[in-house]
């Protein structure tokens, strides 16, 4: 079965001032994939995300979303985004989980309109999907870092997007909760059919979760399925990652 | 003074309100301000803009002083309520603060002392031009129940309707902007326009509230009830309701004590708010 491509990046070059940040990037994300975009700090990962989200405009190359050139793309609520910054919101803000997630529907509901029963049900559904239902009426500031990040995922998926993009979502989440956090992502991917694009500098934690890997360091060094990726030997790996890295051995039993 | 004669004649305050128009003005204006000042204040506090309210109240003072002076100097202005000059200055001041905040990107708080001292400076110049302090000016500084005119009351009602309607229809945008400005922008909400509307509302509410609470204390009515509410509220809507409850209580206590004890209402409103704030903090501590 031919899979549809939901994000298609071709020949993209990007410069800040005179410095090349991204060169000759080709990346295609098939529908239903769970793509890990990895690379060291400063490798251009966040820049590439901003390009996909339309926050930075490309001058060289082309970006297509759901088969539509980005310049003509209007359905931005089909793409949910969880930023790294979600961790640095005002922690003392007196808002319940329900209120925060409802924020994800503001654009869809539209200016001057007030959300109704349908929106309330959508919020409860999204909160359930990330397993935070018991905390619906708790203040966001009273939750742990991992729980807060789940709430921000609920906010990103409440408008029912096809793609969810996450920028280093586990920064500030303690290691015990990281595992269950990835369980939830797998659930969104496998059970709800959501395409995930996850950016991280920590390749070790995602190798047994994602279906595809893209390694970025100015150039896209590797892009393929997880199967192909784990067949690379250490030397090739250290070459594409820019410096020596080690894969944790927990994926050998795949 | 009328208030003294009322007390000597042992009329209750409720009876007096029915008899004297000035008391009706003061009580209606106060009761309305007790709702809208904390309502808007809830957004101001969570956005960490509490000090802007202070800066704007000082700018409003310069507007009032300009109005009082022009009323004396130019006969044509004598009929214009100085409150309108206050509003005009307050709105202008709010726009200037925004400009200054973008000029000093890395020292955004500098906008506050610049506007605050600017407001007082200009105000003092106009006050000296208008032959110094008089009772009129005193009532603007510390609030008064006997000085609220029918015109003031109408201004309060108009501004309050604008505030209530705007917050009703822009609630979700204002909420997101307050909670997560980055996200608001990224999700395509017209953050700039919503912020602009918000800052204009703030300027207007400060200008009209000052008649009851006084220029020097007006920001307290926007921040102290919220400071108490935020300690115990679950969620933002509850924060708003509790803020309004605390604010309204403080205003009513202030007005009653102004009536029976002839105290400046602004002072009693602030002291009542602080007592409630302390009670809430202690209660919360006790419960944990």
TrEMBL record, chain A:
PROSITE patterns: ABC_TRANSPORTER_1, ABC_TRANSPORTER_2. Gene3D superfamilies: P-loop containing nucleotide triphosphate hydrolases. The keyword Metal-binding does not apply. The keyword ATP-binding applies. SMART domains: AAA. Signal peptide: none annotated. Keywords: ATP-binding, Nucleotide-binding, Transport. InterPro entries: AAA+_ATPase, ABC_transporter-like_ATP-bd, ABC_transporter-like_CS, Metal_Ion_Import_ABC, P-loop_NTPase. GO terms for molecular function: ATP binding; ATP hydrolysis activity. Residues 7-242 form the ABC transporter domain. Belongs to the ABC transporter superfamily. This is Zinc ABC transporter ATP-binding protein. It comes from Domibacillus antri. The lineage of its organism: Bacteria, Bacillati, Bacillota, Bacilli, Bacillales.
């Amino acid at each position: 079965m031919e899979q549809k491509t939901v994000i298609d990046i071709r020949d993209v070059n990007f410069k800040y001032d005179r410095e090349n940040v991204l060169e000759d990037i080709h990346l295609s994300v098939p529908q239903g994939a769970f793509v890990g975009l990895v690379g060291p700090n400063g490798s251009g990962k966040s820049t590439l995300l901003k390009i996909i989200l339309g926050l930075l405009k490309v001058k060289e190359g082309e970006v297509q979303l759901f088969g539509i050139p980005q310049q003509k793309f209007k359905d931005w609520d089909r793409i949910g985004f969880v930023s790294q910054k979600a961790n640095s919101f005002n922690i003392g803000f007196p808002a319940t989980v329900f209120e925060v997630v409802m924020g994800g529907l503001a654009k869809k509901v539209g200016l001057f309109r007030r959300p109704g029963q349908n929106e309330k049900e959508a919020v409860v559904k999204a909160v359930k999907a990330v397993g935070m239902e018991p905390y619906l009426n708790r203040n966001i500031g009273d939750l742990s870092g991992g729980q807060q990040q789940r709430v921000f995922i609920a906010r990103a998926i409440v408008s029912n997007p096809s793609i969810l993009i996450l920028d280093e979502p586990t920064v500030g989440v303690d290691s015990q909760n990281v595992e269950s956090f990835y369980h939830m992502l797998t659930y969104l991917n496998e059970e709800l059919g959501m395409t995930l694009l996850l950016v991280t500098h920590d390749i070790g934690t995602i190798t047994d979760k994602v279906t595809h890997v893209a390694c970025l360091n100015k150039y896209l060094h590797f892009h393929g399925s997880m199967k192909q990726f784990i067949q690379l030997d250490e030397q090739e790996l250290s070459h594409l990652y820019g410096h020596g890295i080690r894969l944790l051995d927990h994926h050998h039993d795949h | 003074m009328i208030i003294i004669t009322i007390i000597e004649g042992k009329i209750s305050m409720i009876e007096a309100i029915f008899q004297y128009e000035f008391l009706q003005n003061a009580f209606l204006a106060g009761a309305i301000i007790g709702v809208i000042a904390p309502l808007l204040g809830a957004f101001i506090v969570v956005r960490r803009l509490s000090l802007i309210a202070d800066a704007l109240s000082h700018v409003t003072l310069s507007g009032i002083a300009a109005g009082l002076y022009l009323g004396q100097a130019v006969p044509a202005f004598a009929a214009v309520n100085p409150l309108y000059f206050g509003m005009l200055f307050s709105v202008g001041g709010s726009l200037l603060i925004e400009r200054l905040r973008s000029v000093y990107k890395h020292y955004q708080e500098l906008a506050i002392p610049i506007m605050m001292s600017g407001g007082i400076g200009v105000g003092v110049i106009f006050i000296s031009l208008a032959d110094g302090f008089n009772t009129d000016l005193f009532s603007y500084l510390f609030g008064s129940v006997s000085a609220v005119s029918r015109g003031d009351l109408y201004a309060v009602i108009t501004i309050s309707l604008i505030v209530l309607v705007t917050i009703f229809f822009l609630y979700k945008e204002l909420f997101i902007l307050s909670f997560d400005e980055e996200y608001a922008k990224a999700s395509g909400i017209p953050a700039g326009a919503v912020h602009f509307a918000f800052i204009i509302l703030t300027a207007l509410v400060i200008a009209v509230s000052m008649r009851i609470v006084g220029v020097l204390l007006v920001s307290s009515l926007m921040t102290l009830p919220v400071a108490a509410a935020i300690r115990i509220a679950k969620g933002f809507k509850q924060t708003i309701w509790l803020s309004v409850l605390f604010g309204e209580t403080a205003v009513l206590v202030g007005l009653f004590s102004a009536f029976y004890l002839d105290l400046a209402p602004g002072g009693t409103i602030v002291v009542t708010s602080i007592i409630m704030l302390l009670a809430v903090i202690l209660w919360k501590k006790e419960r944990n």
